[in-house]
Amino acid sequence: MNHFMIVPVALPAFVAALTLLGMRRRLALGRAVSFAACVALLAVAIGLMWQARDGSVVTYALGNWPPPFGIVLVLDRLSAMMLLLVALLALAVLGHVVVTGLDRRGWHFHPLFHFQLLGLNGAFLTGDLFNLFVFFEVLLIASYGLMLHGQGAARLQAGVQYVVINLVGSTLFLVAVGMLYGVTGTLNMADLAVRIAAAPAADQGLIRAGAQLLIAVFALKAALLPLHLWLPRTYANAAAPVAALFAIMTKVGVYSIIRVTTVAFGDGAGAAAWAPAGWVLPAALLTVVVGFVGLLAATRLRDMAAFAIIGSTGTLLLAVAMFDEGAMAAALYYLPHSTLAGAALFLVVDLISRRRPELDDRIEAGPRYPGIEPLSLLFLLAAIALAGLPPLSGFVGKLLVLDAARGHAAAPWVWTTVLGATFLALVAFARAGSTLFWKSAGTDRPARAAPAGIRTAAIVPAAALLALLALLTMLAGPATAFAADAAAQLFAPENYVAAVLGGGTGGAR
To answer: 167 Cβ partners below 8 Å, 6+ apart?
Structure first.
């Protein structure tokens, strides 16, 4: 049994408890422990990624209880990629938090941060629906605290809305899980695939209803239209580094749609086969439109970043919703790009607003502050990434999505939407950038001194995320090959089922 598989879950749980009980008022020590834990998570994630590269499906049965009766963690190419993405994002966000001093505005940032990582990693590793629900709740509870970190009336109001919507989602999640358990008698995803395939015709309608409700809950988490209304206000009012970490939370919903559909509701699921295929694609098209129109209409940088998350997630779901191996490969390349690009934009926005204390993040011309020039370059690169322009990886990802859609019935809609959204993003970012940097340079208002307390090192985390996007572009060949292999593995769920129910290692694919 590979005990390293439990580290992405056990380590954040241990560090969260340690920092909560023993380091709340010892900030320097808490920071050191948090950084050490994130570096360790990154090392473990790289090791697990290396282990999953050959296509084997590895399981870890907690307490040695055999599936489907016990809790089982499952590692394949997709889950390994998501663990690596969480580790990279967490390290960058934590660096920004420490350099800017956000963790000084409350005693519980570091425990909440690691509880959030616990929920994220657990959701990507778990092999059954009930524990997926449990890890969803862990990451959501942590996100409630992180959302309110730093206080403020607007943040509290948006936080209450966020909590209420997610409580409704959690209730529907339990209803869907109850429906499926009532019919099949199991919640282990591999066992669920076997029992759904063998279910009598009389049960097919209830299984399909449960599947549709479950996918609707995941669509709420992914902010898919019309279930997206919670995201703009939540992300725009959260502290920018928190919103950057939240960039991966919509991907938890996308991951869950991919995982549950390919394993349990694939070709062998009868009436529930490919349950979300009929409505997720048109909803994703509308999500892209709303996201990038909102980007164009935004008057604040945080609003722009929030709508950019919606638009990029919609683009990702366009590829996922085709439920084709080639389109899924395109989605798996675009997924890390959209996460890192959205997070980078939030960090850059935070730096810009700190340099312009009088105007904050409003898209208005104002006095020119010293040290703004590096931020203009970072903003340009983040805008290029999210718009999907060359030379960064968004361009490659969108080309892959468009190429995968060529033979699909909805190809004209996909091409029109993606290309039109790219144009809207280009206009929106050009307008914002010219207002912030060019018009400010030409204003008659005198330049101001740089605000105290802003360190040059603050640009490093955002620059590191953008450097990862450049690396993803330079390694597009190996990255797309890995994405294609991961997609092929997803569309061969028999290896996943055999590995889980056999308690061993599935064959490579």
So the answer is: none
The burial class, CB within 10 Å (0-12 / 13-18 / 19+), for 352 is: buried
Separation between Cα atoms, residue 163 and residue 227, nearest integer Å: 14
Q: Is 59 helix (H, G, I), strand (E, B) or coil?
A: strand
CB atoms within 10 A of CB 300: 18
Q: What confidence category does residue 503 fall into, taking pLDDT thresholds of 50, 70 and 90?
A: low
Q: How confident is residue 62, by pLDDT bands cut at 50, 70 and 90?
A: confident
Q: Report DSSP letters for 125-190, one per residue.
A: HB-BHHHHHHHHHHHHHHHHHHHHTT--HHHHHHHHHHHHHHHHHHHHHHHHHHHHHHHHS--BHH
How confident is the model over 53-66, as a mean pLDDT?
88
Record the pTM. Answer: 0.93
Short-list 242, 307, 302, CA closest to 96: 242
Could you tell me the two tokens for 489?
A: 């593995």
Report how far residue 208's alpha carbon sits from residue 38's, in angstroms, rounded to the nearest whole number. Answer: 40
* Helical H segments across 198-300, by residue range: 201-221, 230-237, 240-246, 249-264, 277-297
Q: How many CB atoms lie within 10 A of CB 307?
A: 26
pLDDT for 264-303, tens place per residue? 888 887 777 787 777 899 999 999 999 999 999 999 999 9
439-456 pLDDT, tens digit per residue, is: 765 554 555 555 555 667
Task: Give the C-alpha separation, 490 to 485, whole Å.
Answer: 9
Task: Return d(Cα 210, Cα 197) in angstroms, integer.
Answer: 15
Burial label for 371, CB within 10 Å (0-12, 13-18, 19+), is middle
Q: CA triplet 204, 205, 210: central angle to 5 degrees?
A: 95
Residues with Cβ within 8 Å of residue 372, at least 6 apart in sequence: 352, 355, 437, 440
